[in-house]
Amino acid sequence: MSERINAFIPLKGHSERVPNKNLRQFHGGPLFHTVVNTLNQANSIASVVIDTDSDEIAESAGELDNVVVVRRRADQIGDAVPVNDLIGSYLERSDDTHLLQTHSTNPVLTVATIDRAVETYFSTPGMTSLFGVTRMQARFYDWEHQPINHRADELLPTQELPPMYLENSCLYLFSREGFFERRTRITANSMLFEMDQLEAVDIDEEVDFELAEAVYRLRHGD
């Protein structure tokens, strides 16, 4: 693999639904160490950039190899700040032409998937972004109880239903140029990158933390 890019991880100190999430112990170290160590093993990743508002996270990140810590601007501190704003702030201060963004809350993400995503992105002409999705074949309804991908009076086997794709927040790849067209990581010319459902576990609630731990033990044998 010839293309190597930087990876960007936003890490705030405060966490509403899972307290102290980013520093919580996960298999022998703070949660965010897991994804950083995985990124550092990927052939496609040059270095890891951690954007944070936390002194404790910044200090802990200093224990890791190949990490650059970027301190968050004062006007971008808070739970309501969109990730796209943080990415834009970083890109305005860097010369990255392409970037991969992920989260500490995706600890089951694998080296193989990271490298496959980067290779897919750079080998697909015309694409300026790629993002991870989980394929789902089930009967979906909207908030008004209306069927989305099926007919309620025709109970087709779920495997025959048209698939739906859930944005799983595991990884995003995008070009600098594509991002600044709309200041968003999902650009006008984007592609879906299908991932294994268990690998795509995203820690958003307490139960997700328990699930991630169980899957990690299953995959790593410890």
For the terminal residues, how far apart are their CA atoms? Answer: 30 Å
Q: What's the pLDDT, averaged over the residues? A: 92
Structural class, by secondary structure, is: alpha/beta
| Strand adjacency order, main sheet | 3-2-1-4-6-5-7
Into which percent range does the helicity of residues fall?
25-40%
Specify the CATH homologous superfamily.
Spore Coat Polysaccharide Biosynthesis Protein SpsA, Chain A
Q: How many domain modules? A: 1
CATH top level?
Alpha Beta
Pick out the low-confidence regions: none
Gyration radius, in Å: 18 Å
Secondary-structure element series: EHEHEHEHEEHEH
CATH topology: Spore Coat Polysaccharide Biosynthesis Protein SpsA, Chain A
Question: Could you give the topology of this structure?
Answer:
Blueprint: E1 5-11, H1 31-41, E2 45-52, H2 55-61, E3 67-71, H3 83-93, E4 98-101, H4 111-122, E5 129-136, E6 164-175, H5 176-182, E7 190-194, H6 206-220
Parallel strand pairs: 1-2, 1-4, 2-3, 5-7
Antiparallel strand pairs: 4-6, 5-6
